[in-house]
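Consider the following assembly input.
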Amino acid sequence: MYILYKNKVYNTAIGYLQNVEDAEEITQDVFLTIFQKAGTFKGNSKISTWIYRITINKSLNQIEKRKSRPHAGTEIQDFHKIEFNHPGGILENQEKMKYLFAAINTLAEKQKTSFILSYVEGLPRQEAADIMGTTLKSIESLLQRAKINLRKKLISVYPEGITKN
Amino acid sequence: MNKKEKWADEVLQSMDGMKRAEPADDLFDKIMAKIPEKEQAVIIPIKRLRWLVAAACLVIGLNIYVFSIGIQSSQKGDTSESQSIELLTDFSLYK
């Protein structure tokens, strides 16, 4: 089971947390929960759906914990502070991806989840809908809004004096 | 489309061709270390395993023995039945 799901769990967690150590911690936590709660899995959904839900819940809880920690700085300052490089990204896109992941962080929870599952994790829309317990139409609408909001956010934080590569 | 919009679209497309991130190789060991020992795979001592095997063999042996006795007795029953039929036909009382 670990071999089958480790990358799915880790990649989803890193999409939310944008930090290697935190993603590893969540991955450990998810597999410990699977080990302890396997008996309670009723088989009403696919195992992968159940595992993705555990991962998402734990990642969102971790984000909540982070938010509760006191920090100084405006949203814009926070945005430019993020230096996350997704390990699976193409080298030439790394710089742009930093901005993209920082923008993903600003999305509302459902938009963020739909975007991470569909684009970071690369799941089919229907599977993302099953995981989120919603309809295909709703996922498409969430993704549409997520893209619009990401675009707006990116335009607002455009780094002046950028050199085209 | 101005340069900001163009840049934003490029950033949105920067995930094209992205692969899944993979955890470090030692993560599985870290997870196993966190599972309490008593919850890990139940290890049966060889001594107890020998007793279990011996008990299983005994049960299987007894089953075979009882089964063979059953077959033998049913075969005996068949022969005595056929003999009695022969006796009955030999007398030909009602012919």
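Chain B has three helices and no strands. Ask yourself how this observation constrains the way the partners meet.
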